[in-house]
User: Fold these one by one.
Assistant:
Number 1:
Amino acid sequence: MLKVYNTMTGRKEEFLPLKRGKVGMYVCGVTVYDECHLGHARTYVAFDAIRRYLEYKGLEVNYVQNFTDVDDKIINKAREESRKGGADLPILIKGIVKKYTGEYFACMDKLNVKKATCYPKATECIPEMIEIIKRLIEKGYGYEVDGNVHFSVKSFNEYGKLSRRNLDECSHKTRVALEEQKRNPMDFALWKKRKEEPLWDSPWGKGRPGWHIECSAMSMKYLGESFDIHAGGEDLIFPHHENEIAQSEGYSNKNLARYWLHTGFVTLRQEKMSKSSGNFFTVREVLDKYPPVAVRFFLLSTHYRKLIEVSEEHLEAAKRATERIAACLSNVKKKGMGLSRSMQPTSNRIAIESAMDDDFNIPVAMGIIFKLVSNVNVLTKNEDFVRAAVLAADIESFCNVLGLKFRADEEIEEELLSLIREREQFRQRKLWEEADVLRQTLLSKGITLEDTPRGTQWRRL
Ligand SMILES: [Zn+2]
């Protein structure tokens, strides 16, 4: 039985989708105005692995992830560029959105994150947002003041149910409220009156939608008024997801999502990684130094709800761990052993699945995998390749579920291959000293050689 931790109830619950065999899943996407940092990658890699596991269990996942392409951060960046003598603001905004959407896909492709079923953009769903706001005003949840529309948190009885906050906690915001003509300091914007581009016509005059209404409109448009999983980073619980709930449920009188899943923070030097603090590693700079499979492994090796501390040391350890798995699989395959998966579930597979069924406990499942790697290495050494191949099949199949793609054998670098050939020639000409120098060179590059009557065989360390 699959159990997932639901932020809404604070408990692990049995996962029961609304429609048998199908899962509707919405993950809050990025605001496209800058490069992705490792905090973003953690969230999207974690939910990608969760999606892959649900698919492995035979569920059909409709995975929707938005792009926020209208936001003050994007507009401010465009203004900066325009002050430097760039083109018109709308053109600059388009350029920024295009550039960083491309950047997002480039990084996620490298990290082997599967494409979502669809990627709605906020600017393509403005009519849907206006419809929701109209209904919210009719039902007494929203109110207009001078072209701005706010959501009245007092009108929604369950406000605070996700983040477990009560409204009285935030009275210090009164001054802000007065400035923005809000009835309550906690009220938030559904529609913002604006005089400058980008803006849209609405029943309340020209303006832009608030950030939270974007996700309400996009999730309901593609997944319906009620769906299974709503996910995002932990920092979105309040106010973003709380406000989404108030808007969507105020609008539809239905529960928006059955399960709310959140990833933990990523820290660097013990501080939360965030763009605003300047304390971050971009995905690109990490991928310049480490193989993508190692970065993906690193992000998955801590449980998705727990905090990850990033350091060179941890990334190095992840790199070594993935090399160990890759070498183990490659050594079995090089003996011509196909890793055919048996139809009967092995005891290892059952143990791995029971870890994953417990709120996607990848670290526990990885522990089982590394025990298997040790066993396979012993069997390979003892030339018991038949038994090694059976265990290796379990390793490979679980790594596939997690989206960990290892370099195939035949992908050995041409440079290394030519060194192996060169040494083989020295050996045939009985030039032992020269052959030995090359053996040492290859060893320093992680390749060990074995001279057999059938010729030289290589394997990765
Ligand atoms: Zn969102």
Number 2:
Amino acid sequence: MNSAYDWIEPELNRLERVGWYRTPKIVQSPPGPVIEFNGQRLVNFGSNDYLGLATDPRVIAAAIQACQAWGVGSTGSRLLSGHKQLHEDLEITLAQFKQTEAALGFSSGYLANLGVITALVDSKDLIIADAYNHASLKSGAKLSGAKVYEFTHGNLEQAQELLSQHRLHYRRCLILTDSVFSMDGDLCDLPKLLGLAEGFGAMVLIDEAHATGVLGPTGRGSVEHFACQGRSLIQVGTLSKALGSLGGYVVGSQLLVDYLRNRARSWIYTTGLSPADTAAALAALHLIQAEPEHHQKLWQNRNLLAQSLAKLPPSFPLKLLPSESAILCLQGETILEVQAMSQALYQAGYWVPAIRPPTVPRSRLRISLMASHRPAQIIGLVEALQAWTV
Ligand SMILES: Cc1ncc(COP(=O)(O)O)c(C=O)c1O
């Protein structure tokens, strides 16, 4: 008899045939600018630990202390028995850092996006979204039941047309965008988007996952970068990138946070963030503010790489995509070409992941910088890339 699961193997075979099949590699070392795979040490350009705080001894000590004082798990949802002083402290500090009235911590950035979007809009409402948004924004939009229209990446003129055409037919409207696009490194034009939203009575949610700790003179994110403090908007982010820990958050008005505590299902019906993750994120937030040198170092490294890549000869086969963040991408013609380059860099001692469809429309090498990279490691990567000049 045929099994109901017989379709899985041919589907996996299909993924393999088109080059979409993926498996994780075991990392055999702590995170950092150098990591070990299969016994080979590689300079790591595939990390989100932008400021190197995931291994900062003070962040680690905060996590250990929290485990010793509060146990390993928070053992309940936040509205039952899982709400601890540490959660309060983290949320107060996040709100201060982001210069908003209030903050709410979630178990991940993905869950924050799901919870916030589905709490704000439903089938009576409209979502206008950038086509390159992160998967968690797309999943949240779908799950909400709202009517979703996507505009081509960065095309705010098209967003305006969509709003003109459809806004009046729906109760609420929510505009969704990454602030730093995670697979490209470019930015959403936030002042323009906020102006548009204000004109159409639309809410705006930006995903600050790759902006927090990175953008703005003091790393507060794209709102600081574009001097949009005080404007009405909702910022979602993660504790798992520049903050080096695990978890997600939303920051905004006190009313918004009070509402989400009552309506965001991925916050209400899940266990509170663990004491270790919460304390680590809190310690990282203090360090970002007390030690601006991590942020400065990240930008020195990022600018060194951007300048060096811009000098690659015209015959270099990959195209450097526009970026204003700590993510720099080199786009190729085919999956196989990009995979071959990632593999060759691996052999040369550099970990630069190849990002392929369906994550992105066209394959690319995605390079992310850390404050803890040494200039020689960055120059070494560019020299290794130069070997591909035809
Ligand atoms: C833009 C963006 N949003 C959300 C997330 C999800 O965050 P988390 O890893 O905390 O679930 C990520 C990455 O993981 C991301 O890149």
